[in-house]
Amino acid sequence: MTKTRKPIPNDIAAEVLFQADNTCCVCRGREKTVQIHHIDENPSHNVFENLAVLCLECHNKTLIKGGFGRQLTSHVITKYRDEWSKDVKSRRSLANRKAVEGQVGEVSLSEELETKPGVQSSEQPQLKQPPIDYINSLPTFRSALQQQAQPKRDTGITSEMVQANYDYIDSLTGILVMLADYYSPKQFGDQSPQEFFSEVIASRFRWHYSVAEPHGPATGGTIVRILCSSSVALDVEKMIEDMIFALVGFNDDFDWDNWKKLWSNNT
Ligand SMILES: [Zn+2]
Fold first, then answer.
1. pTM value?
2. Residues in a beta bridge with 53
3. Cα–Cα distances in Å, from 26 out to 34, 57, 81, 89, 216?
4. How far apart are the first and last CA of the chain?
5. Helix 132-154 crosses helix 223-248 at what angle (to 10 degrees)?
6. Interval between CA 73 and ligand 1 midpoint (Å)
7. N or C: which terminus of the chain carries fewer CB neighbours within 10 A?
8. Do 251 and 266 touch, CB atoms closer than 8 A?
9. 97: closest CA among 124, 121, 118?
10. What is the CA(217)–ligand 1 centre distance, in A?
11. pLDDT tens digits for range 12-50
12. If you measure from the C-alpha of residue 96 to the centroid of ligand 1, how many angstroms do you get, rounded to a whole number?
């Protein structure tokens, strides 16, 4: 019996992808091309609870039957999906808190609520100006994030080195989200800035991964994963630079050239 496929409504698809950070919930490889999988295998059952983001490889594992059974059962996928979305949520919240504080150490949520410059009152019709002190502190913050990533990068173990880059990218994304607060509310479309950046960064991962292996997937070895995540980190650094330039680059009281030098040279 064939089941008819009804397209997943856009808003549901967007939310599923956002909660998974456009990333496969099983292998969590950010460079993989993903699709939305129906957990119960009914392609018309488009409710949120029935949908999970999988890469093509992991999706194939749901199709392997026989022997000891499927490698990925619906029960297992649901578990992966729930754990991953919880993880994404806490990573985002931590990165956003760090970005607000401009420091790598732990910050408490109550502090965040009191100090977050992004909290906008509804009576504020004018766009806020980002605090110059905060912007001037970003090169040092970036340098601290790099230092934090160094021990994992020094292990020489691919998975650790890639994770160090993922963590670094997450922290930088917190800065992007923070800076987006100084743009007009609909600047990034109907999506929230966090959704917008999640998509842009996922697409950068796929770009670097696609072009890195001219002879086909997995022909470049595991080093490709390190190179791709390093390249995305550079992309996100440039995105922050572009936003700073747009927001304050022309301000008389801001030394853009010096900021750019510190941001680019600081490691
Ligand atoms: Zn996967």
1. 0.84
2. 36
3. 11, 10, 7, 16, 22
4. 59
5. 170
6. 14
7. N
8. no
9. 118
10. 14
11. 999 999 999 999 999 999 999 999 999 999 999 999 999
12. 26
| Cα of 177 from ligand 1 centre, angstroms | 26
Helix (H, G, I), strand (E, B) or coil at 219: coil
Rounded mean pLDDT, 147-167? 96
150: CA distance to ligand 1 center in Å?
26
- 3-class DSSP assignment, residue 53: strand
Residue type, 228: C
- Read off the tokens for 46: 């488009």
Q: How far apart are CA 208 and CA 72, in angstroms?
A: 28
Q: Could you give the residue ranges of the DSSP H alpha helices within the chain? A: 10-19, 56-63, 74-101, 109-115, 132-154, 158-180, 193-212, 223-248, 256-265
Compute the distance between CA of residue 240 and CA of residue 236 in angstroms, rounded to an integer: 6
Residue 163 identity (one-letter amino acid):
Q
Q: Tell me, what amino acid is at 242?
A: D
**Secondary structure element (H or E) that encloses residue 52, with its range:** strand 51-55
pLDDT at residue 11 above 50?
A: yes
